[in-house]
Amino acid sequence: MAQLLLKLRNVPEDEYLEVCQLLNDNDIPFYETNVGFWGIGVAAIWLNRDDDLPQAQQLLSEYMEQRQRQAQADYQAAIESGTQRTWWSTFSQQPFMFILYILIIGFILGLTIMPFLSL
């Protein structure tokens, strides 16, 4: 019976392709399902053979750990090089939109809190 390996909802395209390549490189047969026309299916990667599940889970776990380490290293490199987005960089790039968003947030907070202040 087929075994579910990975649900593909919110999985980036590059990660999906790398997981497929990882399974192909290790000769693990799999197939993919999509959500279908109405969007009620499960987009996922399924294994054809039950006995491949432990090996595939181990490979996927190692891949996810490596991907997490790479993402953390990229984040640290962006912080050190000054390219990581901050509040100040957002304000300096788009001051009008930044102020507009702050005003909208303040307006919504004011409307939300106003009934409690009149008690």
Describe the structure.
- The protein is mainly α.
- The chain has two domains: 3-84, Alpha-Beta Plaits (2-Layer Sandwich); 86-119.
- The chain is 61% helix and 11% strand.
- The protein contains four helices and three strands; from the N terminus they run βαββααα.
- The protein has helices at residues 13-25, 53-81, 87-93, 95-117, and strands at residues 3-7, 30-33, 44-47.
- It has a three-stranded antiparallel beta sheet, covered by helices on one side.
- The longest helix has 29 residues, at 53-81.
- The protein starts with a strand and ends with a helix.
- The mean pLDDT is 93.
User: Helix/strand-derived class?
Assistant: mainly alpha
Strand order of the largest sheet: 1-3-2
State which percent range the strand residues make up.
5-15%
What is the H/E order? EHEEHHH
Domain count: the total is 2
**Major beta-sheet overview:** 3 strands, antiparallel
Radius of gyration: 23 Å
Protein name: DUF2007 domain-containing protein
Pfam families: DUF6164
Transmembrane segments: 98-117
Organism: Bermanella marisrubri
Could you outline the blueprint of secondary structure elements for this entry?
Blueprint lengths: L2 E5 L5 H13 L4 E4 L10 E4 L5 H29 L5 H7 L1 H23 L2
Antiparallel strand pairs: 1-3, 2-3
Helix pairs in contact: 3-4
